[in-house]
Design brief:
mainly beta, Immunoglobulin-like, 4-stranded antiparallel beta sheet, 1 helix
Length: 111
Amino acid sequence: MEQEIPSPTTAQEMIDLLETYDLSSDAVEDVPQLDFKIFPNPVQNVLTIQSAQDHDISDVHIYQLIGQEVLKNRNRNDQSRINVSSLQKGIYLISVEYQSGKRVSKTFVKQ
């Protein structure tokens, strides 16, 4: 039985989430049918998210590494563009939730 991944609200919850569900950028190998591409990476202004096999993306969440959600975007197709120009330079976690309820995460660099 598959378990839904909770949304972290604190830095410790983010660390626990990453350890429990192995949400590092390498973890997408566990669910290759739900992989997604992000580009450009590093990004300055607009980040494009594209589902690798045309699975519909439901929501996109962007977190600081301390666990704070900084952006959320609702989407209803297999590609999304997010303006990240307001984010400070650094490394962020992007979590893509599909219409099926599955979630896959990666990291990206904001320049």
